[in-house]
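Thread: Newbie trying to understand structure tokens

Hi all, I'm a second-year student working on a class project, and my supervisor (Dr. K.) asked me to get a predicted structure for one chain before our next meeting. I've only ever worked with sequences, so writing a 3D structure as a token string is new to me. If someone could post the tokens and maybe explain what I'm looking at, I'd be very grateful. Here's the chain:
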Amino acid sequence: MDSPTITTVIPTYRRPALVVRAIRSALAQTYPNVEVVVCDNASGDETREAVSSIARGDSRVKYHCQRENIGFVRNFNFGLSRVETPYFSLLSDDDFLLPEFYEHAVRDLAGSTSAALFIGNTLIRDEIESRMLVTSRRLVEAGFYEAPMGFRAILREDTLRMWTGMVFPTREARTAGCLDEAMRTQHDHDFVLRMAVRHPVVISNEPCAIYSHHSTAIHVTDRPGGSFWEGWFTTVRKLAQDESLPESVRRSAAQTLRRKVTRNVARAYAKSLTIGRTAELADLRAVFYANSLRCLGVLASSVDRNQWVKAAVRAALKSATVIIRMVRSAREFGAKLPAGADCKESRFDLDLP
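---
Reply by user tm_fold:
Sure, no problem. This is what the structure looks like when written as tokens:
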């Protein structure tokens, strides 16, 4: 592979200081062939001048300002429509790239000539609690994966990787379709999974980008509820109904993602119940009940009768283990309380298996 140019697409809205940080992180890449497209969603503040001052000194920066706020997903799609280079990456205005990200991506893509998508490792900078986190405690092995094995590989990790540390091929991305503007949540993961199920990928565990967790971020101000999890199940349904994929691929992909999402919903429900997050329980209960039977049906149809019995027994034993741990934790917690203490506001954490 020759040295292709990579476009960094940065949608922004009323974060002039942060978008300057994001732009500078793209321009500071050790890989030289970079362009930056900034899409201002009608901020109406200092954002125009902040970006324009950088663009006047660096012709690689292009600035577009919407006449009115079109919503952040449409603004992402607008940015994608302005990409004219072989590759691009997507960068929220409050996140930033590490200097060697694009150099890692181009090198790994060149080393695997059939790979279309580079999936790097994004770290989480928790600015609320002043700490750095990893997205997954168990990263899959780095290397090349044929489609759809790359899709399966990233689903084996605790949490799906963020697109902040990914480089996408422009032509293949447009074939797969833009971000789904009808989805209320998970439009980013939906896009990543549609790409990974179709194309060979190369996975790297090198830190490539920083995802910021702060008090004004959308993922903090919008509490995860029904729409959060329904976004995942929408992606499951879309995979199952995607006739552009071979039938065996779309069925297997939908089953794999449905199992993972349903497990995560069940764990989130159990944890919220245990530590007293009553505001989330109604949404989680509705989502889990609405999708649990479908998940069980998929599991039953994928194994023979003996395997299904074994799976049911294992699930029952695991559930019993969780209940026993909850009871023991509650008893231990109660034993530690001083005499006369009011237990109504007491909370405790459950370490799920």
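A couple of things are worth pointing out once you decode it. The domain at 6-221 is CATH 3.90.550.10 (Spore Coat Polysaccharide Biosynthesis Protein SpsA; Chain A). Strands lie at 6-12, 34-40, 61-65, 87-90, 96-97, 117-126, 131-134, 143-145, 166-169, 201-213. Feel free to ask follow-ups in this thread.
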